[in-house]
Amino acid sequence: MARNGFPDDLVRTQRDWLRTYEALARCSPGVGTTALRRRLIVESCRIARHPFWTEAGRSPAMWGELRRTARADDGWRSAA
What we know:
- The protein is mainly alpha-helical.
- It has one domain (8-73).
- The chain contains 3 helices and no strands.
- The chain has helices spanning 8-26, 34-48, 61-73.
- Helix 1 (8-26) packs antiparallel against helix 2 (34-48) and helix 1 packs across helix 3.
- The radius of gyration is 14 Å and the shape is elongated.
């Protein structure tokens, strides 16, 4: 089932991206970051190439809404 108009797999990929980014932010610079950086690139490509974005009426503002949806689904904690 879609959340806020986003397909579940897209929200799941965005949630995985957020978790990977958080893990990368916690790492010491240069220590074991290669795998995380590669994973972040792969997940970024999956998000950007998802068929959802090819449908008419999709706007750049929806990228922010996707992140907010993924954070809400995951009980995301703000770092600030």
